[in-house]
Write a structure and sequence with these properties.
The chain is α/β, with parallel strands linked by helices. The chain is built from 10 helices and 26 strands. The longest helix has 22 residues. The chain starts with a strand and ends with a strand. The mean pLDDT is 97. It binds alpha-L-arabinofuranose. The site of alpha-L-arabinofuranose has 11 residues, from loops.
Length: 503
């Protein structure tokens, strides 16, 4: 048994819980759009062809923003292909995923879906095969009320009111050699700056995200951010970070420490952004949009993109099946994002449906929750108000990949309006229970409203269409509140949420 302690106090505010931390991502990739959110022949399809079952699960997930249309896909995308009468829309090769896109879903359909599920869109422009002019065209189409070629086209296509999309990504992963139109840092810095300047000439209030690194393992990481921010600083608001985590070679201990890797990545990006701020004598701060993160078994992905003359529509790609251990890591990555809420202002779980996703579907059939759905939904739906840094006193665990990591990873939120306090905690030990003592004496008159733990004797258990419910977050009967202190036992490889409300 390990022993760990936390002190939770309303005095230790890191920053607000930002709704955008709970964003997700819909890319034209595999079965995310087609046969994911959209399947007109499905028994639950609405009049626009969207699956109601997926829409309901999306709402339950509590996701807030959805990034679209890519991802690597956006770097070859001609957005005009996806507007107007569907019968006139061309089918195009998607070089990123060696597929064919029928363009049945485009900007207008995506915006309808966002309205239906109640999420904020986050739009990416193509800075791979295209440039400033096309970025301005799609912005005009989406956001200008009317009286111009593109805004009138939108009205003609049925959307009388402008969409007024606030957040725009200036390309995607332009540091990656796999990206169509990949650029050096200097080349990208120029095009991102010019696109941002022009987009702001049209709409100064836009929130713009420049591409940072595709992972902290990129050779160019750090130098890329420095070059891009030095040039683009005054024209953008956020720099992106992308990273995926997975269990290498069965090394569960290192995998469970993935939150420390994400934390180091965030702190490094902040350090570079702030050094550019100081050197450039800028006053504003550049914050982080962590707009792709998840567990992704990239090396063992169940399906590789097709090759040769095979360019299918919506092939099953990247359909990773997640375990309870993966869900524990996803819960810890969310704890890490919240812990950095002062500088991480937006984040997107990649992706939403079928493609490395919390929601899975059968074409023509069932939709179900993967394991990673649970910590995401419980955090998104319960973290409210301010993020509190909890003083963690935890034993360290040795890992091959990250050195020593704390056995306990935790964060708390406090909603000053309702008085609710929620503690999110992960026991990263592979084999030992952690006995947790929480000092809540800075609060008075709380009671435990809910204490849930997600774990399983076999941490590699996965959900399926036939059984998505036999392992669920379950009440943790060890949680006791006594004289301003909570005691709880957290099983090995577990994620927990303890919600306290005024008595
Ligand atoms: O989310 C899957 C892919 O991962 C995205 O298309 C790309 O941006 C990243 O490399």
């Amino acid at each position: 048994m390990l022993n760990a302690a936390l002190t939770v106090s309303p005095a230790f505010v890191v920053g607000p819980v930002r709704p955008r931390t709970f964003g997700s991502f819909v890319e034209h990739l595999g079965r995310c759009v087609y046969n994911g959110i959209y399947e007109p022949t499905h028994p639950t399809a609405d009049e626009d062809g969207f699956r109601e079952d997926v829409a309901e699960l999306t709402k339950e997930l509590g996701t807030t923003t959805v990034r679209y249309p890519g991802g690597n896909f956006v770097s070859g995308y001609r957005w005009e292909d996806g507007i107007g009468p569907k019968e006139n829309r061309p089918a195009r090769l998607d070089l990123a995923w060696h597929s064919t896109d029928p363009n049945t879903v485009g900007v207008d359909e995506f915006m309808k879906w966002c309205e239906k599920v109640g999420v904020e869109p986050m739009m990416a422009v193509n800075l791979g095969t295209r440039g400033v002019a096309e970025a301005l065209d799609i912005l005009e189409y989406c956001n200008i009320p009317g009286g111009t070629e593109w805004s009138d086209q939108r009205i003609k296509n049925g959307a009388t009111d402008p969409y007024r999309i606030k957040m725009w990504c200036l390309g995607n992963e332009m540091d990656g050699p796999w990206q169509t139109g990949h650029k050096t840092a200097q080349e990208y810095a120029r095009i991102a700056t010019e696109a941002a300047r022009a987009m702001r000439q049209m709409q100064p209030e836009l929130e713009l995200v420049a591409c940072g690194s595709s992972s902290s393992d990129m050779d160019t990481f750090g130098a890329w951010e420095h070059t891009v921010l030095t040039e683009a600083y005054e024209h953008i608001d956020y720099v992106s970070a992308h990273e995926y985590y997975y269990e290498h070679d069965g090394d569960l201990a290192s995998f469970l420490g993935s939150g420390d890797k994400m934390d180091r990545f965030i702190k490094s990006v902040v350090a570079v952004a702030d050094s550019v701020r100081a050197a450039g004598k800028h006053t504003k701060r550049i914050n982080i949009s962590f707009d792709e993160w998840n567990v992704w078994y990239q090396q063992a992905t169940p399906s590789k993109p097709p090759t040769g003359d095979d360019w299918p529509v919506a092939p099953p790609l990247l359909e990773d099946v997640y375990s309870v251990a993966d869900a524990v890591v996803v819960g810890d990555l969310l704890i890490t994002l919240l812990r950095n809420t002062d500088r991480v202002h937006s984040a997107s779980l990649a992706q939403l449906v079928n493609v490395i996703a919390p929601i899975m579907t059968e074409t023509g059939g069932r939709a179900w929750k993967q394991t990673i759905f649970h910590p995401f939904a419980l955090t998104a739906n319960n973290a409210k108000g301010s993020v509190l840094n909890v003083a963690v006193d935890s034993p360290a665990l040795k890992t091959a990949q990250h050195g020593e990591v704390a056995a306990l990873s935790a964060i708390a939120t406090h909603d000053p309006e309702t008085g609710d306090v929620v503690v999110f905690a992960v026991n990263r030990s592979t084999d030992q229970v952690t006995s947790l003592d929480i000092d809540l004496s800075a609060f008075t008159g709380l009671r435990v409203a809910e204490a849930l733990t997600y774990t399983n004797d076999d941490p590699h258990w996965t959900a399926s269409a036939d059984d998505a419910t036999s392992v669920l977050p379950a009440p943790n009967g060890t949680v006791r509140l006594n004289g301003g202190r909570i005691s709880a036992e957290l099983p090995a490889v577990s994620w927990s949420m303890i919600r306290l409300v005024p008595a």
